[in-house]
Amino acid sequence: MIALSVSFASHAAAAEEGFGGPTFRKGMWRFVRTLELVSDSKVRQKLFEREMTRCVDPTQAMKATFSPVSVGNCHSSKPEKVSNKYIFSNRCDYLGPVSTVITVLSDEAYTEVNEVRVGAQRRDRVVARRISDCHEDRASLDQQTAARRDVSPPQVQDSDESEPL
Question: Which residue among 18, 44, 77, 143 has the highest number of C-beta atoms inside a 10 angstrom radius?
Answer without folding.
Answer: 44
